[in-house]
From TrEMBL:
SMART domains for the chain: LRR_TYP
Name of protein: Leucine rich repeat transmembrane neuronal 4 like 2
Transmembrane segments: 419-441
Compositionally skewed regions (Polar residues) per UniProt: 385-396
Cross-referenced InterPro entries: Leu-rich_rpt, Leu-rich_rpt_typical-subtyp, LRR_dom_sf, SLRP
Region (Disordered): 365-399
PROSITE patterns found in the cross-reference section: LRR
Keywords: Glycoprotein, Leucine-rich repeat, Membrane, Repeat, Signal, Transmembrane, Transmembrane helix
A Pfam family: LRR_8
Length: 511
């Protein structure tokens, strides 16, 4: 049987977008799927679905449910999927879902829950996906998820959580994906996740995180993706990433990073994708370890990395500043073991920084084998004294007079490509024009001759018009002279006789 205002497809009943305030009557007892979405349900009463003991999934989202009785789901033991999102649920009784132990997917997102209690999910040992997004949660009591031993996906995003305890996620041994984005965390100690040994993806973006720490070291062998974008992180703790040996994707966009410690960069050995845009990068030699590492990564999204300091390069791309201004020293291009070059103070600072980096990493810098360098930038050493000491040391080491080497600048491949492309385009344009002229001359010879004849005629007409203009300029006054008397007028009236007409300019004509 199919209730009125519903649509039935076999054992699936759709009673959606109606005015139902309760469960419709005459639903077949063999119903396996029931959708009551977009209705006006207010309360779920005890044993309300008991006559539908074959139900496998039940959709009750987008209603106005405010209260769920503790016995509401008794009698639907086979239920595997329950959707209660987008309602007005403010409170859950303990053991509300204990009568449906086969539940795999539970969606309580977009409700008004403020806290979670351990009894809320009692008995859900087969639950795999739990959605609690956008509830306004401000606390999670310890051992809340202890019964959810099979949980693989947990969404706690878009809530008001400020802190987590070490036992918050106790029992979630199989959890693979955890969402904690858009909460109110100010700091994160990754030691609160000690038993999430199978976690692969962790979302912490758009919180208020200023610092991260590891606490007691332990290793996340399976963590592959970590999203920390949209926070207020200023420094990275290398110990955090040293505990993530298989991390592949890291998002640090829109933070307040100015540099990355050398040990943190060294811990990113397994990274294949990283996002670093939207930070306050300091384009001094401290950026060199990061930029050197980015050159070897497969998918580095460093295109939008912008310099925030010093003022001379504010607003410019970090990659271009490092390349054009030689911020980072290339050992192979500046020094050789046989001949050395006198360095400027800026290059000396870069090399000193490089020595410090290699010391921190436990390796030896080639500069340290060549000559003792002055202290770090900021120590009280005059520039003149530094250059004098370095020059004297280099002179003592080299067998002959020092041969200055010009540092080899990195060839700008992009500029070379532009020159080649422009040359090819110019050559093709000229060749195309010549080809058009040649084809026209071979295929339409008459047309070419007509064009030449037209050009010659045009020149002749232009020359004749110029001569006429010269002649008219000379003939400025015209007049006619004649003698008027009676003897002369009579013959002109009676018979024709020759008459002489004189025009100024010594031109005569006879009429």
């Amino acid at each position: 049987m199919c209730p009125a205002s519903c649509r039935c497809e076999g054992k699936i009943v759709y009673c959606e977008s109606g005015i139902f305030q309760g469960i419709p009557e005459n639903i077949t007892t063999g119903c396996q799927g029931l959708s009551l979405r977009y209705n006006s349900l207010l309360v779920l009463l005890p044993y309300q679905f008991a006559h539908l003991n074959q139900l496998i999934w039940l959709y009750l989202d987008h209603n106005s449910i405010t209260d769920i009785n503790a016995l509401a789901f008794h009698g639907v033991r086979r239920l595997k999927e329950l959707i209660l999102s987008s309602n007005k649920i403010t409170y859950l009784h303990n053991n509300t879902f204990s009568a449906i132990p086969n539940l795999r997917n539970l969606d309580l997102s977009y409700n008004q829950l403020r806290s979670l209690q351990p009894g809320h999910f009692y008995g859900l040992r087969k639950l795999q996906n739990l959605h609690l997004r956008s509830n306004g949660l401000n606390q999670i009591i310890i051992r809340t998820f202890l019964e959810c031993r099979s949980l693989e996906f947990l969404d706690l995003g878009y809530n008001r959580l400020r802190s987590l305890t070490r036992t918050t996620f106790l029992g979630l041994f199989k959890l693979k994906e955890l969402h904690l984005e858009h909460n109110q965390f100010s700091r994160i100690n990754f030691f609160i996740f000690p038993r999430l040994t199978n976690l692969q993806t962790l979302y912490l973006q758009w919180n208020r995180i200023r610092s991260m720490s590891q606490g007691v070291p332990w290793t996340w062998h399976k963590l592959q993706k970590l999203d920390l974008s949209g926070n207020e992180i200023q420094m990275l703790d290398p110990t955090v990433f040293q505990c993530m040996p298989n991390l592949q994707t890291l998002n640090l966009e829109s933070n307040k990073l100015s540099s990355v410690p050398v040990k943190a960069v060294a811990a990113w050995a397994s990274l294949t994708t990283i996002s670093l845009a939207g930070n306050s990068w300091d384009c001094s030699p401290s950026i060199c370890p990061l930029m050197g590492w980015l050159q070897n990564i497969r998918d580095s999204k460093d295109i939008s990395m912008i310099c925030s300091s010093p003022k001379s390069v504010q607003g410019e791309r970090v990659v271009e500043v490092v390349k054009n201004q030689l911020t980072c020293v290339d050992v192979s291009n500046i020094f050789s073991t046989t001949s050395l070059v006198a360095l400027t103070s800026t290059q000396m600072e870069n090399i000193t920084f490089y020595n410090d980096l290699t010391t921190d990493l436990g390796t030896e810098s080639p500069f340290q084998r060549l000559t003792p360098l002055p202290g770090r930038p900021g120590e009280k050493h005059g520039k003149a004294t530094e250059s004098t000491n370095v020059s004297s040391t280099l002179t003592a080491i080299s067998p002959g007079p020092p041969t200055p080497l010009i540092p080899q600048l990195h060839f700008e491949h992009m500029a070379f490509h532009k020159i080649v492309a422009g040359s090819v385009a110019l050559f093709l344009s000229v060749a195309l024009i010549l080809l058009v002229i040649y084809v026209s001359w071979r295929r339409y010879p008459n047309t070419m001759r007509q064009l030449q004849q037209h050009s010659v005629n045009h020149k002749r007409r232009k020359k004749n018009s110029r001569q006429e203009q010269d002649l008219n300029s000379q003939l400025q006054e015209y007049y006619l002279s004649y003698h008027s008397n009676s003897e002369t007028m009579d013959p002109l009236v009676n018979e024709s006789r020759p008459c002489t007409c004189t025009i100024s300019g010594s031109i005569e004509c006879e009429v």
